[in-house]
Amino acid sequence: MISFKVIDLGLKKYLEVLQLQEELFNKNIKAKLNENPTENYLILCEHEPVFTLGKSGKRENILVSNEDMNAEFFHVNRGGDVTFHGPGQLVVYPILDLDVLQIGLAQYILQLEETIIVSLKEYGLKGERIEDAAGIWLRDNTDRKVGAIGVKASRNITMHGIAININTDLSYFDKIRACGLEGKGTTSIQKELREETSLEDYKKIFTKKFSDVFSMNAEQLTFN
Length: 224
Prior knowledge:
Order of helices and strands: EHEEEEEHHEEEEEHHE
Number of helices: 5
Structural class: alpha/beta
Radius of gyration: 17 Å
CATH class: Alpha Beta
Mean pLDDT: 91
CATH topology: BirA Bifunctional Protein, domain 2
Low-confidence stretches: none
Strand content: 25-35%
Number of domains: 1
């Protein structure tokens, strides 16, 4: 079975983790160009408050000035529009070789979505896809986004990834038009369950479901 190495970083600034992503991504690109084996990684972390804007995103979807963000801000090279990362949100960056997995980018995104959906089932929540609205949503009375997706791939090596709101401070989402969409809200697992929810517990569930969905074997990695 194909394996991936889990790198659990805890709470980190966005730029620090971006630099690690780029290091592992570029290492795999170089290996592939030299016809050497690549390695698969799953980076898990929380970020200190930060807004990120995708390469095709619009600044007007950030509804406040830079001074009123009370967070860092970066324009990055992933797909998607604007999103927020902060404590209480699990951010997952898979650095994978899709050629080794024998899947294309569209299938990769579907499997990321599926991983979120099956992990939410463990909490009795029904995550759903919405046409023309990226991410995973809860949809009983209103559409509420619980998981965001924005990826990049080059030579079928991936970076960037997904974010799932566990016990996130959702007030930050009032400062943006999340993913450029009007009239849709944002939620978290804790808000939906109305009880304290452990990010560490969800992290374990997510890693197991990721292994299942991608038919891969997880190896814990200590990374300094």
